[in-house]
Write a structure and sequence with these properties.
about 280 residues, globular
């Protein structure tokens, strides 16, 4: 079987120092790779997501990306968007507009703003609003959460299928101990405020849990979830137009997600740093 060397990057997203955020594997120049190879390589990296950079099919885009978990393809995800844009730029990609990068992915075109740090424009929610009582009961049981502690629950789905839950404090978020056996197809995020943001350098704490029916885990730092939570809670006036979310403490990480609503658009930003670069040899 013929193998072709392709550029490869591993990027730490939502961290300025590396090893503290959420790692992403990026395969450059991925045209010619079939679906089976994409899925197989994503399983092999064993990271939460692996992306493959391709020429765009939409003339308004700078590049196209396919985003894979170990279980399949996603139409959109946040940390892969920032990490892919970082890798594409670092590899010499030149955007049509110097101030932004336009990414084509499963949900359509996503704008990534350049500046002090990369930030993506949160795509419209595919599902929002109230969670039906039966599903809410399942979620609370899987998280071993007393309903009296929940300030709010809503769909915040921009592709992965997130449900958001607001708790009364960051400490309550960090104290949650899920019941993996009840996780099922759970994809849920928790958010709670820090009482003294200046002392911890962040305004809220976020955690993200996912189950695919056979496996259960906690994501280190999650751009798509933070985007959905912001669209819900900033839109409802329960969070300010600008804040910093921390995520990853229970995973021994220290991610920072910079959220801002400007002119009605939610932007989700974070620092990005390359930790591994080289080539991979894949068939195709």
């Amino acid at each position: 079987m013929t193998t072709t060397p392709r550029r490869f990057s591993q990027v730490d997203v939502f961290s300025a120092h590396g090893l503290r955020g959420n790692p992403l594997a990026v395969v450059h120049d991925a045209d010619g790779l079939d679906e089976q190879t994409l899925a197989q390589f994503a399983r092999w990296t064993n990271l939460s997501e692996t992306t493959f950079l391709l020429p765009p099919t939409d003339p308004a885009a700078d590049y196209r990306v396919r985003i894979f978990t170990t279980g399949g393809e996603l139409p959109f995800a946040g940390h892969p968007t920032l990490g892919s844009a970082h890798a594409w730029l670092e590899a010499g990609g030149v955007p049509r507009d110097a101030g932004r990068v336009v990414q084509e992915c499963g949900v359509g075109l996503v704008t990534v703003r350049r500046g002090e740090r990369l930030a993506f424009a949160a795509p419209p929610l595919l599902r929002s609003g109230e969670v039906d009582p039966a599903r809410a009961e399942e979620v609370l049981a899987a998280l071993d959460l007393d309903p009296a502690r929940v300030l709010g629950m809503a769909w915040v789905d921009n592709g992965p299928g997130w449900i958001g839950i607001e708790l009364g404090s960051a400490e309550e978020v960090l104290a949650v101990e899920p019941v993996p056996a009840l996780a099922g197809l759970l994809k849920v995020g928790l958010v709670g405020r820090w009482s003294d943001p200046a002392s911890v350098g962040k305004d809220v704490e976020v955690r993200a849990f996912y189950g695919d029916g056979t496996d259960f885990g906690e994501d280190p730092v999650t751009g798509s979830l933070n985007a959905g939570l912001a669209q819900w809670l900033v839109g409802a006036g329960r969070l300010p137009d600008r804040y910093v979310a921390g995520q990853g403490m229970r995973r021994h990480r220290d991610g920072r997600v910079h959220v801002e609503r400007r002119d009605g658009q939610v932007w989700v930003g974070g620092d990005t740093v390359t930790t591994v670069s080289g080539t991979v040899r894949l068939p195709g």
